[in-house]
Design a protein that fits this description.
It contains eight helices and 18 strands. It has 364 residues and is of the alpha+beta class. Helix 1 packs across helix 4 and helix 4 packs across helix 8. Bound molecules: zinc ion. The site of zinc ion has 6 residues, from helix 4 and strand 13.
């Protein structure tokens, strides 16, 4: 399983898919599912959905993860050909100078570029520790004129992402672009393979959602139609085993999959999730039965699209699960293949435990 997870993850990391422009990622995942004999469909927003029908009496489940990634949109092309952009999603501006990017004008025609960083020899002491805001950045594509950039297909509104990149590190760790959340996609493809081969169990809708990084928009549309009783969301969890993160929690890379007991953005939409006790119980009991370590997360500053999904209809039994991730939203995020494998096993086993008797109440 690990080799297949690695292959799927690396392939997915190398496909650009800014929010609202996930089509290439969706095509790739639909192809992976089709190769397993799993039919999938796309909805109007672009969510990719595969349904595995199950026992009529059991609660229905939606397991979802997002296909999109953060980045930029082209705002303006200067006369000298420098491309100016707007930020899309939680882009860390202090990690942008001198990054390689890809302007996505079409498969096979994408335009590489570099975020300009003023020549160091000419940088004054005052400038040295200043972070430029996204609107001040310039992307150099080498074209040298507005006309040449436009002739290459770049226009206002063109999606821009970190140049897709995947690096295999020691110890089963993968670094690169969009580990958030192509790692979740790779896990969910593996879960779909297991669902294809299962006998019995609940109806499961596997959803690869869109526009999560653009303020959590896609999954809620899928859930509105699918009306699941239980929603399980897969995304990164903050690894806290580097010195800069030590105060934030106890989650370690390679320590196994995680469950979130509390997430709250603390700004913007003020969204977050406090998971349903039935879903927490399910994950804890499954982990214990499978001999998996289940790491725990409670964080302000993070949130997922489950925030909206949990509130649909009469309310959905909801929980966030995930994998530890380092250096989130930078161009080189890191995850651990063992954690992805553990997360896959947790999900497959948890789904197998949801039967007609699964208790959707909050308990005594
Ligand atoms: Zn994410």
């Amino acid at each position: 399983m690990r080799e297949r997870l690695k292959r799927d993850l690396v392939d997915l990391m190398l496909i650009p898919g800014l929010s609202g422009h996930e089509d290439r990622v969706r095509r790739h995942i639909a192809g992976l599912l089709a190769a397993e004999g799993v039919e999938s469909r796309a909805d109007r927003l672009g969510n990719l959905i595969a349904t595995f029908p199950g026992e009529a009496g059991a609660p229905s489940v939606m397991v979802f993860t997002h296909m999109d990634q953060l980045g930029f949109f082209v705002r303006k092309i200067e006369a000298d050909g420098m491309v100016r952009v707007e930020r899309m999603g939680g882009v860390p501006e202090r990690a942008l100078a001198s990054q390689a990017v890809l302007l996505c004008v079409g498969e096979g025609r994408d335009v590489p570029g570099v975020i300009a960083n003023k020549s160091h020899h000419a940088t004054s002491p005052e400038e040295k520790y200043v972070v430029l805001k996204t609107p001040e950045l310039r992307i150099d594509t080498g074209h040298g004129s507005k006309a040449a950039v436009e002739a290459a297909g770049v226009r206002i509104g063109t999606p821009v992402v970190y140049r897709p990149n995947a690096v295999e590190l020691a110890g089963g760790r993968i670094a690169g672009t969009s580990v958030d959340d192509r790692a979740g996609c790779a896990v969910l493809v593996e879960v779909a393979r297991a669902l294809k081969a299962r006998t019995g169990g609940p109806t499961v809708h596997v959803v690869f959602s869109v526009q999560e990084e653009f303020n959590l928009r896609g999954a809620v549309v899928a859930a509105q139609v699918l009306k699941p009783d239980v929603a399980i969301q897969i995304d990164l969890m903050l690894a806290c085993d580097t010195p800069d993160m030590a105060d934030r929690g106890e989650m370690v890379m390679g320590g196994g999959p995680g469950i979130s007991l509390y997430s709250f953005h603390g700004r913007g939409t003020l969204n977050g999730v406090i998971p349903h006790p039935a879903a927490v119980r399910l994950m804890e009991e499954t982990a214990a039965a499978e001999g998996l370590t289940l790491q725990r997360s409670a964080q302000v500053g993070v949130l997922t699209d489950l925030s909206y999904v949990q509130l649909l209809g009469e309310g959905v039994v909801a929980v966030d699960v995930g994998f530890p991730c380092r250096y989130t939203h930078s161009s080189l995020e890191i995850c651990d293949l063992g954690d992805l494998e553990g997360l896959t096993r947790l999900l497959v086993a948890a789904l197998g435990r949801i039967g007609p008797g699964f208790d959707l109440t909050r308990g005594a």
